[in-house]
Write a structure and sequence with these properties.
By secondary structure, the chain is α+β, with helices and mostly antiparallel strands. The protein folds into 2 domains: 1-124 and 194-270 and 573-715, Thrombin, subunit H, CATH 2.40.10; 282-554, no CATH class. It is built from 22 helices and 23 strands. The strands form 5 sheets. Strands 3, 4, 5, 6, 10, 11 and 12 form a 7-stranded antiparallel β-sheet that branches. Strands 15-14-20-21-22-19-18 form a 7-stranded antiparallel β-sheet. A hairpin with a 2-residue loop joins strand 16 (583-586) and strand 17 (589-591). Helix 8 (282-313) packs antiparallel against helix 9, helix 8 packs antiparallel against helix 10 and helix 12 (374-399) runs antiparallel to helix 19. The two termini are 48 Å apart.
Length: 715
């Protein structure tokens, strides 16, 4: 095994002597930064105090970082409610306001004043008011409950009581979330604003430049940002949309630095990372690397190759399937990078070393009775669940994603269940939604492509699925013959036939489903999965979750304060920090930490849906008309750093040592996507839009410099 630098031992640091030599990964709770985090942040160059980051008695950075619609992060950049997030986070809203006459996705959108800002249905931003540890209260009366069902029921009762009775204002909400696998519980008091209006967005040729080809990739040249404004009532409190609402006055907003970044600069990312699994045992990571990821990559591989063949031969199909192909390729690409990264960083070997030290520590402390069973049981349970986990992953890939005919069948069967379980009114309501959904599905559908994809995917599925868990209708079959039959005879393959079926009365609808070969085929696969796979998969998953909680309890018990064991991401507010740095992903390959507009022009392909460049931007480039935002005749676009991020950090502010906004987080590098499981600072990098590029696009490209008037720019 290669010599392991301390910086790599994120997961075993609790067993090793602490030395403040280099930055670890970690997603830290902002109210708990005092101590070792504060020391490390200072050693990396931070000039702020931790009270500047989180404070309940005065305004702090946390007051400027709301959760954007439950899935992204955003930041306040003016005292008039101006909010910045990613273009891809606001994409749905930009799309919803677009039409043939006003194509904001293609052309961009810029409100010239408040009256032109566009309201958005069901768009919310949520601010954290206060964070409080309520572990003892949540776990009260659970100590003597060995039965997991009873224990969980008591926890839920305690949570319900605390949510209802903990102090808050009438317009606020209490939320409680579990940390450290249920070993800690934290209460968040939040404010949710429901009147959020679109202010500005660059065209997709800037905001989505490089699209899916460049996804998870560095070097990157994407201006991934959009602007919104938060509105409140006259008392500055959350309110439903009203013309009488006024721009929200945040407790804090970020000044924006024009100084830019250089290698070695301190950076901090504030946001709501979605999900990580940093404390998985070695056997789990090994299973991901050797069994689960290869299967998921494999099925998407055959799907992508089939779609690509059609797209290359037919331009109409290329246009139809561009988005669908990109969607399939997104996590296919991520899983490949994740798998390679886990192998390259020796994640399994590192975890095995951790576990050997864990065993020694258990014995040394006389804790064999309490913790000695954990690792042997992990080995046993992960062996037992492997086939079921593989079956589940393959099922999700086949039944709900990637193949229109099967996904259509799944939705139709859900509609039938709504009719049976909830009656006619629910059936009618769902049917309306489904008719709209199928409009979108069939708009980008070609029967020959879907049939070919089905044929290849179903063959892979049947070959890769554990035989004992394979649906009876796939034990022996000819893929070509099956595809011919389904796509010729089933209404699931035709928009016209689908519409007819959805407009049938209740009884006729049920009867039609019973007589359709496609629906019957899909139902057999679904029924078999939920009867044969799901019960065992869930039971074993629950047993593993209980083991993981005990494992985490032991890790926390054995750790010292300086070991700094951070909780896995769970979509709550976190701080991560690091330094601006390039990296070397492989032999003889080294990447710089920053990209420029020159790279945009190098990638430029006229009229290409991914790499087109607007005429105005080309003109600015030719003239080198960068205003105050350029440096040495070049226009910075993106930069990377060692901040530990994941999904949910999209739109997160990248902050300098003084607390100024320097960038906008939007992605990770491909080689480091394994950071959800194992963080390695040698290759894990987060990707950010340089704020100078954001301002340049707003001011020089869009001519919306009036928006800068309400920002605080730091030179």
């Amino acid at each position: 095994m290669k010599k392991i630098n301390f910086i790599l031992l994120l997961l075993i640091s609790y067993l090793l002597p602490f030395t403040l030599t280099a930055q670890q990964g970690g997603m830290w709770i902002p109210s708990l930064l005092e101590g070792m985090n504060a020391k490390e942040m200072k050693s990396l160059g931070m000039k702020m105090s931790v009270s500047d980051i989180y404070n309940i008695n005065k305004s702090s950075l946390k007051d400027a970082v709301p959760h954007f619609n439950g899935g992204c992060t955003a930041e306040m950049i003016s005292n008039q409610g101006l909010l910045l997030t990613n273009h891809h986070c606001g994409y749905g809203q930009i799309q919803a306001h677009s039409s043939v006459q006003n194509d904001y996705l293609t052309d961009g959108f810029w409100a010239k004043n408040l009256s032109e800002e566009l309201p958005n249905k069901n768009l919310v931003v949520t601010f954290i008011v206060r964070i409080e540890d309520v572990t003892k209260k949540v776990l009260a009366d659970t100590q003597n409950l060995s039965d997991e069902t009873l224990r969980e029921a008591q926890i839920q009762r305690n949570i319900a009581f605390l949510v209802k009775n903990s102090p808050k204002e009438s317009w606020q909400e209490n939320r409680i979330r579990a940390f450290y696998e249920g070993n800690q519980y934290i209460l968040f008091v939040v404010e949710t604003f429901k009147d959020v209006r679109l202010v500005g967005a660059p065209p997709s040729s800037i905001g989505k430049f490089g699209s899916d080809t460049d996804n998870w990739v560095w070097p990157r040249h994407t201006g991934d940002f959009s602007l919104f404004r938060v509105y409140a009532d006259k008392n500055n409190r959350p309110a439903e949309y009203s013309k009488d609402n006024v721009p929200y006055r945040p407790k804090h907003f970020f000044p924006i630095s024009l100084k830019g970044v250089k290698a070695g600069d301190f950076t901090m990312v504030f946001g709501y990372p979605g999900r990580t699994e940093e404390y998985l045992p070695a056997v789990a990571v090994e299973q991901i690397v050797n069994v689960l990821n290869p299967a998921k990559i494999g099925i998407r591989d055959v799907i992508l190759k089939t779609q690509d063949g059609f797209m290359r031969a037919n331009n109409e199909i290329k246009i139809k399937y561009a988005s669908k192909y990109a969607s399939v390729a997104n996590y296919w690409k991520k899983w490949i990078g994740e798998t390679q990264g886990l192998k390259k960083s020796n994640a399994v070997a590192i975890k095995r070393a951790q576990e050997q030290k864990f065993i020694q520590e258990v014995e040394k402390r006389g804790k064999t009775a309490e913790y000695g069973h954990i690792l042997p049981q992990f080995a046993e349970k992960y062996t037992q669940i492997q086939d079921y986990a593989l079956a589940a992953d393959l099922y999700w890939e086949l039944a709900q994603r990637n193949i229109d005919l099967i996904a259509n069948g799944y939705k139709i069967l859900q509609l039938r269940n709504a009719l049976r379980e909830k009656g006619t009114q629910s059936f009618v309501d769902r049917k309306k939604n489904l008719l709209n959904n199928f409009e979108t599905v069939f708009k980008n559908y070609d029967i020959n492509v879907d049939k070919a994809v089905f044929e290849q995917a179903i063959s892979y599925y049947a070959k890769t699925m554990p035989k004992a868990l394979l649906s009876p209708n796939l034990q022996q079959f000819d893929a070509h013959t099956l595809a011919d039959k389904l796509y010729k005879e089933s209404f699931l393959a035709s928009k016209a036939e689908m519409d007819k079926v959805l407009n049938l009365p209740d009884d006729a609808f049920e009867k039609r489903l019973k007589n359709d070969v496609g629906v019957q085929f899909v139902e057999q696969i679904i029924s078999h999965f939920y009867e044969t796979v799901m019960p065992t998969y869930q039971n074993l998953g629950s047993e593993i979750a209980t083991l993981q909680r005990t494992y985490m309890k032991a890790i926390l018990e054995f750790s010292k304060p300086q070991d700094r064991i951070f909780p896995d991401a769970n979509s709550t507010l976190r701080v991560t920090y690091g330094k601006v740095a390039g990296y070397s992903p492989s032999d003889a390959v080294t990447y710089d930490y920053i990209t420029y507009l020159d790279g945009v022009m190098e990638k430029y392909v006229p009229n290409d849906y991914e790499f087109d460049v607007p005429a105005k931007l080309r003109e600015l480039y030719e003239k080198k008309d960068y205003g105050i935002y350029g440096v040495n005749g070049k226009m910075p676009v993106c930069f990377i750093a060692t901040n530990h991020t994941t999904g949910g950090n999209s739109g997160s502010p990248a902050i300098d040592a003084q607390g100024n906004l320097i960038g906008l987080n939007f992605d990770r590098v491909w080689e480091g996507t394994m950071s959800d499981i194992h963080y390695d600072p040698k290759i894990c990098r987060n990707i950010m839009v340089d704020m100078r590029y954001v301002l340049f696009i707003i001011d020089k490209y869009a001519g919306a410099g009036y928006l800068l008037n309400e920002m605080k720019l730091v030179k």
